[in-house]
Design a protein that fits this description.
heterodimer, A: 365 residues, alpha+beta, PH-domain like, seven-stranded antiparallel beta sheet, 12 helices, 10 strands, B: 318 residues, 2 domains, four-stranded antiparallel beta sheet, 11 helices
């Protein structure tokens, strides 16, 4: 059978009206007026140049070559698909659009909730297979980032006091990396753990704490995060969510992607409540094993709870460590048998570990 | 449209795409991008381009996009690697530099400036990639010139524009158009642009107070005027292009696009794209007629990987 079309030879931008003949293994293309044979294309290297929609001319080519054959009528497709079934992939006219929309909407309706549910579930197991070396490198770079703004504090007596506080707790845990605990010169009341065993205590936390046992409690809580690899898990979760959200909103506009950003942060936060509870429990156990008093953490939580009611915006620690009645109750339920973490002299040394001129406020508290 | 081999022909643009079809493509892209945690993005972008190109025709023959997702993906990886090397170098050098505040200030400034150079490089390489993957009647488009040189011009003009409190803007725009248009090829045929920044300077001076008075709306009229000026000063085979849209039409297009996006929460995005391509096809044309037989296949080398820098810098666009 004969088909009419246009042929461009890939050498000039001229196009020629042609007649096309389809045989069992080739397309022969000859000039419509002179009947001169312009090209003979083997079917096995024949390719549709793009997806075919209803009403759109069909464009054919030899793989990797510049010459193009264009046919306005779709009649050739049916016979072509019989002898060259590999062309099917780009022939879209088969599936009605409505069906495609419904199918892919369903796919979306399944995978989006599945991922939102699955990512937190997967983050824990994934955190376990992350090489420790990666965790350490990542953790160090996070800590360095903080130190660029607030330098680390160190004084001979302060360092000794910090070591005295840490040593009994450290003796209770076995970790694949050394615990690296530092105080930084920042007035916010906060402390955090990073992947790879780094724990950062803000000077503001030492100022806020009324006894060394409160600091020991917070430290045990952060060490529990490290033991359970919560920081690594949290980062994996955050990256996973932000990937999903950026895929969801990435195309639309900057505004939508900002909304996506906020969404992923909120989700990470809400999941961290479970992690906080677990860290409380393990932290309290650590204190007991180290024969340290658990009243410090209880006291710390009670004072945070009170601060939350009075001045909810004043403490940074509340935004990453949501405080609830529940947590206070759990801390209070542990029977206190242990001793105090530091003697008053050591405690004074720890509180003044940061340079003198920044410490004026301490005695007033 | 029959073309006699000895004659010249005029060119006309038309657009055949439908928002619904593009919507389906974008929906599939979305699902696959989420499933692959973002990796499919590059293939999805390629799919959208292949659709848009193949729905735009010049003289009833559609354009063709021959790029692949793999090329875009590798281009992106290359750009990421480049940034990783730069960041590593900088963090290695920081301790050394911190000892000398002067030197540190100097390197930070250099790094800040090089960002704008990178933006210029990214814009030009993306354009290079897209043109080299575009064909019409089997003849490839192309771009000569160097992205690095364009980046230097981009940075330089930007600095002059800042120093002149924005007054240099029309000159910057025309100089950059001059560089990219005079390096734009269709096969062996190069575009010629002879527009001058000074011709747009008075309209620009008028546009500033009017723009402020109309809360920026007048800017659409300046853009329409500039589009007209650029088209009329661009030629292929000595034939001028033309653009005939008014500021009002341009404003109308942008305003309705914005409303469509806002009131459908972004769902109308595919229709917005189709409307916009339609708009350009309706308003751009070639004034004279050209000899297509004289246009031969391009012998230029094409880049082997895609516009990674644009992706890495998140400069977006289709």
């Amino acid at each position: 059978m004969n088909y009419r079309g246009y042929y461009s030879d890939g050498v000039t931008a001229q196009r020629h009206p042609v007649r096309v003949m389809l045989s069992s293994n080739a397309l022969s293309i000859s000039h419509a007026d002179s009947n001169q044979l312009l090209a003979s294309w083997p079917l096995k290297s024949l390719q549709l140049s793009e997806e075919v929609y209803p009403g759109q001319p069909i464009r054919l080519q030899q793989t990797g070559e510049d010459a193009r054959l264009t046919l306005d009528e779709h009649t050739i497709l049916e016979s072509l698909l019989k002898v060259a079934p590999h062309l099917h992939r780009r022939h879209l006219a088969k599936t009605p659009m409505g069906q495609q929309v419904i199918f892919w909407m369903l796919v979306l309706a399944i995978i989006v909730p599945a991922l939102l549910y699955g990512i937190p579930k997967l983050a824990g197991p994934l955190a376990k297979i992350v090489p420790h070396e990666w965790e350490r490198t990542l953790g160090e770079s996070i800590v360095e980032g903080f130190m660029a703004e607030s330098p680390a504090c160190s004084s001979p007596e302060g360092d000794k006091a910090l070591e005295a506080l840490v040593a009994p707790l450290r003796a209770q845990v076995a970790l694949p990396y050394p615990l690296n605990i530092q105080v930084i010169d920042n007035t916010e009341t906060n402390a955090f753990a990073t992947p790879g065993g780094n724990i950062v205590i803000f000077r503001g936390l030492l100022t806020f704490s009324e006894s060394p046992d409160e600091v020991a409690g917070v430290l045990a809580h952060e060490m529990a995060h490290v033991i359970k690899q919560h920081p690594t898990e949290g980062l994996i979760r955050a990256v996973g969510f932000s990937l999903v959200f950026s895929a969801l909103f990435g195309d639309a506009s900057a505004l939508m992607s900002a909304a996506g950003e906020m969404g992923s942060t909120l989700l990470t936060l809400s999941y961290s409540r479970d992690a906080e509870k677990e860290a409380d429990r393990i932290g309290l156990q650590l204190l007991q094993q180290a024969e340290l008093t658990t009243t410090g953490l209880k006291h710390f939580f009670q004072r945070l709870q009170k601060a939350k009611e009075e001045l909810p915006e004043s403490l940074a620690i509340l935004s990453t460590h949501p405080m609830t009645e529940d947590r206070v109750k759990v801390a209070a339920s542990y029977i206190n048998t242990g001793k105090s973490a530091l003697d008053p002299v050591q405690w004074q040394h720890l509180r003044t570990i940061c340079p003198e001129d920044n410490n004026n406020k301490i005695n007033g508290l | 449209m029959e073309e006699n081999s000895s004659n010249t022909v005029s060119l006309s643009l038309s657009q055949h795409g439908q928002g619904g079809q593009l919507f389906v493509i974008m929906l599939i892209n979305l699902a696959l991008t989420i499933l692959t945690l973002g990796i499919y993005k590059f293939w999805g972008k390629t799919r959208i381009r292949r659709y848009l190109w193949s729905q735009t025709s010049i003289n009833e023959e559609r354009l063709e996009y021959t790029g692949t997702g793999k090329e875009l993906f590798f281009g992106f990886l290359k750009a990421l690697l480049l940034f990783a090397v730069i960041i590593a170098l900088y963090s290695l050098l920081t301790p050394v530099l911190q000892a000398q505040p002067m030197l540190l200030g100097f390197t930070s400034m250099l790094l800040g400036l090089s960002f704008y150079w990178f933006v210029g490089v990214a814009i030009y390489s993306a354009r290079h990639y897209k043109l080299s993957r575009s064909q019409w009647r089997g003849i490839r488009f192309g771009q000569s010139g160097s992205p690095f040189e364009y980046g230097m011009f981009f940075l330089g003009y930007l600095l002059i524009t800042m120093l002149t409190l924005g007054l240099y803007t029309p000159f910057m725009r025309m100089h950059l158009a001059h560089y990219s248009l005079n390096n734009t090829w269709f096969g062996g045929e190069c575009l010629r642009f002879n527009g001058k920044g000074r011709d747009m300077f008075i309209p620009f001076l008028i546009a500033i107070p009017l723009g402020i008075l109309t809360l920026g709306i007048y800017w659409a009229w300046y853009m329409a005027k500039e589009a007209r000026y650029v088209a009329e000063h661009t030629t292929i085979q000595n034939q001028k292009f033309s653009s005939d849209y008014t500021g009002g039409q341009w404003f109308g297009l942008m305003f309705i696009n914005m409303l469509l996006i806002i009131f459908t929460l972004g769902l109308a995005f595919p229709w917005v794209i189709i409307r916009t391509v339609n708009f350009f096809c309706e308003h751009y044309s070639l004034q004279g007629a050209i000899d297509l037989q004289a246009i031969e296949q391009s012998k230029q080398e094409a880049p082997t990987t895609g516009e990674g820098l644009v992706e890495a810098l998140d400069l977006g666009g289709i």
